[in-house]
Specification:
With 188 residues, the protein is α+β, with helices and mostly antiparallel strands. It is 38% helix and 16% strand.
Length: 188
């Protein structure tokens, strides 16, 4: 019985030690000029901010698709999106958006409106982004004038670098990912 109590306590501590406060509401932040490098933290945008930015300057949109209960989402925030190389690169090359897959706010993207889907208990925009293959975290990159490309699962900074640079350097659609990966040299 004593070992059961210790096991339960250990599990409880593991689960709740990964918790962190929710992301800052990007809509309340002041944004600098597009392409400005981030000093420390990645400055997440709202989807509306990204759509406005696309009208002025074409660049890919990077969406961090997360849920509040997802432990690996929190690890990715802490280890990947807090990495100075990741932060600087993403801020320069993408419109970074953090999107809660279980959020209930109605949104519009490219003229189409998306709502929370009560049947699937997730947002229709998350279903669209992942083509119905929901997994958290998922990094979604929407290339300029392209369709969403979903990369499911936790990505460490070195794994993230390969994918981010493939899209950020404009290689997507021009060079196969396999070819790009063969010649890729990590710098982070």
């Amino acid at each position: 019985m004593q070992s059961l109590k210790v096991s339960v306590l250990f599990c409880w501590l593991c689960v709740f030690s990964c918790a962190e406060k929710p992301a800052v509401d990007a809509g309340k932040m002041k944004w600098g000029a597009p392409g400005a490098a981030a000093a420390e933290k990645l400055k997440w945008m709202t989807l509306e901010d990204a759509a406005s930015g696309l009208k002025n300057q074409k660049r890919p949109v990077l969406i961090d698709l997360y849920t509040d209960w997802c432990g690996w989402c929190k690890v990715m925030d802490k280890k990947t999106y807090s990495n100075k190389d990741v932060t600087s690169y993403v801020q320069q090359k993408f419109y970074p958006v953090k999107f809660d897959a279980e959020g209930r706010k109605t949104i519009t993207w490219n003229g189409k409106t998306y709502d929370f889907n009560t049947r699937h208990k997730t947002h229709d925009f998350a279903i669209y982004l992942t083509n119905g293959q929901l997994s958290y975290p998922t990094t979604v990159i929407i290339p300029v004038d392209g369709e969403p490309q979903a990369i499911p699962g936790y990505l460490a900074p070195n794994e993230f670098e390969l994918i981010a640079k493939y899209f950020g350097e404009g290689k997507y659609g021009k060079v196969s990912f396999e070819e790009y990966q063969k010649s890729f040299k990590s710098q982070w």
